[in-house]
Each structure stands twice: as C-alpha cells, then as structure tokens.
Amino acid sequence: MTTLVDMYAKFGCVAYASAVFNQMAVKNVVSWSAMIACYAKNGKAFEALKLFREMMLKTEEDVGPNSVTMVSVLQACAALAALEQGKLIHGYILRNGLDTILPVISALVTMYARCGKLEVAQQVFDGMDKRDVVSWNSLISGFGAHGHGKKAIDIFKDMISCGISPSPVSFVSLLGACSHAGLVDEGRALFQAMRKEYGIIPSVEHYASMVDLLGRANKLEEAAKFIDDMRIEPGPKVWGSLLGSSRIHCNVEFAERASTKLFQLEPANAGNYVLLADTYAEAGKWDEVKRVKKLLESRGLQKVPGRSWIEVKRQIHSFVSTDEFNPQIEQLHALLCELSSEMKEKGYVPQIKVVLYDLGEEEKERIVLGHSEKLALAFGLINTSNAEPIRITKNLRLCEDCHSFTKFISKFARKEILVRDVNRFHHFRDGVCSCGDYW
Q1: Any coiled-coil ranges, and where (predicted)?
Q2: Exposed site from 219, 229, 260, 312, fewest CB < 10 Å?
Q3: Are 368 and 352 in contact (CB under 8 A)?
Q4: CA 185/CA 69 separation, integer angstroms
C-alpha cells in the first residue's frame, strides 16, 4: 500500500495517493512519510504540514518521524516560508540526534534560506562536519533566489576548491542566480564551462535557465536565436521562459511565437494563455485579449487562482483574491482602501494595466486592491507586532502593482516585508526592494 502511495506520488496523482493512504488500516512511519513527501513534492506544502501534525498526534513515540520525514517537512516549511514551524522542526531534529544526517542538514539550509534567513542558513552550513554537493547546492540556490548572484558564484568557486565536483543541479542553481541578478556575461561563461570544464551535458533545464537569463535582460533576439541553435528539442520549459520574458518586456512578437509552440506542446496549461493575454492587455490589444480568453474558455481551462500564505503565531493562513470566508475580510479590505488612499497622496499610483478586463479605472483599482498578497499583507499588519517582519509566499509571479504597493507600505508602515513569489525573493525595507525592480 505504501509503495502504491509512492507510485502515485511520483506521477503527481495526489488524489489517488491520498485515497490509498486513507484506506490503510495500519500506518507506519514509512507510509506517513510517503504521503507527507507526496504533498511536499507536488506543490501541496500546506497539506504536508497538516498531515505531519496529524502524524505527531497519532503515532507512538517509538515510531515517530525519521530523517526522511524531516526532509519532506522542511521542504514544506521552505515552500510556505513558515519560519516558526521550521524552527520547531529544527529543535526536534537536534533533540532526536538527526543533525548528523546530511540530507536533513541540507534541507535545513534550504529552509532557512527560503524563509529569508540567509545568515542562519550560512551558520547551519558552516557548522556541518561534512558537506556533499547537495549541501553546497542548497547554499548556492538560497543566495541565488535572493538575487545575490555574485555571492552564489563565489560559493560555487569555494565548492570547487574544496574538491567537490558540481552536479547538473549546481548549474541550474547558478544560472538561476545569474538570471535574478542580471549577470548575463557570467551566465554565458558558466553555461560554456559546464561541458568544456566539467563534462556536464546541458539538459532542458539548463537551456531554459539560459533563455530566462537572456530574456529577463531584454535580450529577446539572442534568446530566440539561442533556442534555434539548441542541440536538443526545446520543450515547454524553454518556450515558457521565452513567453515569461516576453510578458515582462511586453514584446508581442516573441510572446506570440512562444505561445504558438506552447499551445501545441501543452494545450491544457492555462498559464500560457494568461501570459499571452497579459502581454496583449499591456499592449492595449483588447480584441486579441478577448480572442485568447475565448480560446481558454472553449478548451474548458481555468486560470490558476492567485494564492498567498502568511505565517502568524506559528499558524499558516491562506488567502485568495475572492476570499470571503476569512473572519477579518471586511477589516482587511477597509485597511487596504485606507492605506491606498493615504499612499496616493505620497506618490503611489495603482498599476491597473495588470487587469485583463477592459473596465473603468476605478473598477480596475478595486480588482488589484483585492489581490491575495495584499490581503495577506493587511492580515500581517493587523496581527503582527511592529518589530516583527512580515513573510508572505505567493504561488504566482508578483504583479507590478503589488510590488509597488508593498514598497510603499514598507516605508509608510516602517515594516520589513519579505515576499517570495514563484521566481525569487523580494525583501522590502524603507520603500526599496532587494530585487532592484528586476524580476
């Protein structure tokens, strides 16, 4: 039964895995761990932590979680930026002597880095008696996600000098770090070094990272040529990188080229239609927006709703833009309206171009003010102390208006705010974001 759970998990069939798990009359630590891992690795971190709590309540002390369980739980904490939960898990690891197991400590490094605590991640890494390539990759990836590309490259050089050979994942992390920091020349050099110096043949992930690096830097012509010259067939990840970059720079030509390929390769992925429609909307091509939306509807597809999570007093709270069930929802909307009005007097201009509907300005403002990350932010302002940073996780890319709004709030409310979207970390303080408006 546990192997069945694991099999369904590997194919991403979470509902089937859950059904098998729930039918098990007897569950041991391996079966609990398999189901927690299924949730953690399939984008359901919230469910992973919930099941872990259930496991702790239902299992006997002598059959408690093991190192495999801990890795999955730490991955879930990292995905939600649930720092306080992660600290509790760290304490459990220390009390139960699991701090000598390499995968556990590497997962701890990742967890602290993805919760915005790079200095703690570095401390955990420095305290390791033995390090493998996974440990180094965890640190490289952590600094890269925060936009510290040059630091990530320095860590890579330290790894090489310690005699550790890089893995393909090392270069995915490095190229991602270069992309977030706009280090185009460094990224090109690393891509060339993969094959020439380390004998690693680039995979689709590496090609997609290079397209992302070039595209974000608005070198879309070069990115397109890079795709044409690829030695392997470009898949959805590569074309997806080009589409995402075209959306950022509002390049209709390349957005159309990429989306044409993507509609053939993954016709059921609603996100591709939305990115193309976003590009048309920003370019003012409303007839094209309507055409794409009709295509989306005719294929029975729905846009993935924006969802944001925030941890307050060791509890994870989830928000969606249409959330009407939160007991504080009226208070949250009232606070956001009040803040928006006050910030407009200080220079805040709502970025209503992100709204895909041909509506009036006032209606567009109302829509952007209800975005999930703003609701999470308002919840954090109401329910945290003045000195306590706010940490938010978003399942999609942070929109231009939420980015601008959060910058103003960090200055206006004198609050440190960390937002991790699907691409990277945004560290807001005193009206400035660590990404330098490059995301």
Answers
A1: none
A2: 229
A3: yes
A4: 41
Whether 213 and 248 have beta carbons less than 8 Å apart is answered as no
- Of 172, 176, 116, 77, residue with least CA distance to 416: 116
pLDDT in tens, 356-400: 666 778 888 888 888 999 999 999 999 988 788 999 999 888 888
Residue 264 to residues 239, 267, 298, Cα–Cα distance (Å): 11, 6, 16
Kindly report the pTM of this predicted structure.
0.83
What gap in Å lies between CA 310 and CA 84, rounded to an integer? 11
Cα 245 from Cα 28, distance rounded (Å): 46
Please tell me whether residue 157 adopts helix, strand or coil conformation: helix
Amino acid identity, position 219: K
Tell me the one-letter amino acid at 304.
Answer: V
Asked if 366 and 389 touch (Cβ cutoff 8 Å), the reply is no
**CA Rg, the chain, in Å?**
22
Q: Where are the alpha helices (DSSP H) in 162-183?
A: 168-181
DSSP state of 354: G
